[in-house]
Amino acid sequence: MAAPRLYSASQSVRRVVGLDTEVRLREWTVWIPQLAPGHDGLRIGHISDVHVGVVTPDQRIRNAVELIARAAPDLCLLTGDFASRRAAPLSRLGTLLTGLPTERTYFVLGNHDHLVDAGQVTRELETVGYTHLENRHHTIELRGAPLHLIGLDDPVTRRHRPAEALNGVPELGTRVLLAHQAESVGEVLELGHNIDLCVSGHTHGGQIYVPRLTEKLMARLGLRHLRGLRRYENDGPWLHVTHGVGSAVTPLRVASRPEVGLLTLRRDRSGVRFSG
Questions:
Q1: What keywords does the record list, in alphabetical order (predicted)?
Q2: Alpha helical stretches, state H, the chain
């Protein structure tokens, strides 16, 4: 698979209390069999693990939002852990994340949100016009075809209810799952539901990433999908696990730079016979 194209927010990078505020945009192409023709070229902005607080500079969060807004995606998906360790910084969360398309920005919560103050996180994001998909699905018509967004709450704090979220999802259309932890896709498949793409965060790309070693250690915690774009179980749905924007405990990152994602859906016609 070709490496993603990389873009940087360096033109707006500043230094805040000595911490690096740079964030990059990573662009991926997601090839989906039987994708509705109208969704060929659909672009999705993905932000996760903002972790507003003293460890994550506010300017880094603004850089992340500006990168996505400048790319002008068709919709934006936010996959949890907006909080860090204290409730006080949440009062500026809405202001920091404002600027995304309000009618097409959706979010789910993560474990830190529930451990700090899930209610305040939700109010901050809903106040700026973003939609909370709390164990439920929402269908929008884009480019003449239905797009089903399925939101799962956090599995770490046992707030996720897959059966409830999937109840009544129409059969036809593109299915995108928002889940703070990528392993949630397995529970969806066990219920007999198919999805085309899952977007997640939680792992920070390993945060301190040493090839093979980090993956082995994280696998012991049940986290087998740490970063990037890959297929679930080799031939299952696509998973996009972003490094995320911030950190809750330590600013130290090794080989897992802060990032946001831009995913372009493409119709996979590799199995279609040419008849020209």
A1: Hydrolase, Metal-binding
A2: 58-71, 93-97, 111-116, 118-127, 162-166, 184-190, 213-220
Residue 36 CA, distance from chain mean position:
22
- Give the torsion sign (CA, 157, 158, 164, 165): positive
> Which helix or strand (DSSP H or E) is residue 121 part of?
helix 118-127
Task: Assess contact for 198 and 177: CB atoms under 8 A.
Answer: yes
List, for residues 107-152, the tens digit of each pLDDT value: 999 999 999 999 999 999 999 999 999 999 999 999 999 999 999 9
**DSSP 8-state secondary structure symbol assigned to residue 206:** G
| Residue whose pair of structure tokens reads 């300017």 in the numeric block | 59
For 54, list phi and psi in degrees, rounded to 5: -70, -25
Buried b (16+ CB within 10 A) or exposed e, 232-254: beeeebbbbbbbbbbbbeebebe
Q: How many of the other CB atoms lie within 10 Å of CB of 59?
A: 19
Distance CA 139, CA 141 (A): 7
SS3 state at 235: coil
CB atoms near residue 68 (< 10 Å): 24
Query: Alpha-carbon distance 93 to 119, whole Å?
Result: 13
Residues in Cβ contact with 160 at an 8 Å cutoff, skipping those fewer than 6 apart: 135, 152, 153, 154, 179, 184, 187
Hey, what domains does the chain have and what are their CATH numbers? 5-268 (3.60.21.10)
* Residues 180, 167: Cα–Cα separation, whole Å: 20
Q: Tally Cβ neighbours within 10 Å of residue 272.
A: 9
Q: What is the pLDDT of residues 220-229, one digit of tens each?
A: 777 778 789 9
Q: Please spell the DSSP secondary structure of 144-212, one letter per residue.
A: TEEEEEEEE--TTTT---HHHHHTT--SSSEEEEEESSTTHHHHHHHTT---SEEEE-SSGGGSB--TT
